[in-house]
Amino acid sequence: MGWLNDWVSYLPTMLGGLKYSAFIAVVTIVVGYPIGLGLSMMVTSRHFAVRTIGLAIVEIGRGAPALVVLYLVYYGLPRFGITFGSVTAACVGLTFNSAAYSSEMMRGGIQAVPRGQLEAASALGLSQSSTFRRVILPQGLRSAIPGLMGLAIQMFQGTSLAYAIAVPELMKTAYNIGSQNFDYLKVFMLAGLVYAAVSMPATWITVYFERRMSRRYA
Hints:
The chain has about 220 residues and is mostly helical. About 85% of the residues lie in helices and about 0% in strands. It has helices at about 1-45, 50-65, 65-75, 85-110, 115-125, 130-160, 170-180, 185-215.
């Protein structure tokens, strides 16, 4: 009962940190995915300059570790007179990563749309923009949904990196509790269980959608 009592006493403080983790995760997904869609359209553009700029942004976003991006945003940008609070810096840095990774998933979904769909749209007299907006984009995004949901779970777990720039999120809260009583084992085990309690149902939902879509396209 000793562990359980301790966990019950730690939990209210940790849930306060979980609010920051959830907020940052929601911002990175809600803002990052539309930016990722824009980047995927840039990467698939026929214009060389647009495609090159899009590819450069995506590759930098995917290649740079999220922790490095956070440090650059929080500690590096003030050199140019751009200063963010820790929570805003975490949102900006992780949104950059989210946009880069989601763009590749959306690009893959868009390019997986059968060519016959394009030919059918052309036969119906749809313009190029209408074909993309009403035929390609809905089908492409639909096939990208499982991957995007999996990425959303990873983004939530990745909010623990915001601890490094002093965001009072779940991991930072756990560390603060541990530094007061030096009972790090209990504290970090509880933090892991809280992360799992959020991530596991989301994973089950992702698997459910994947199975449904597999049956639909089988």
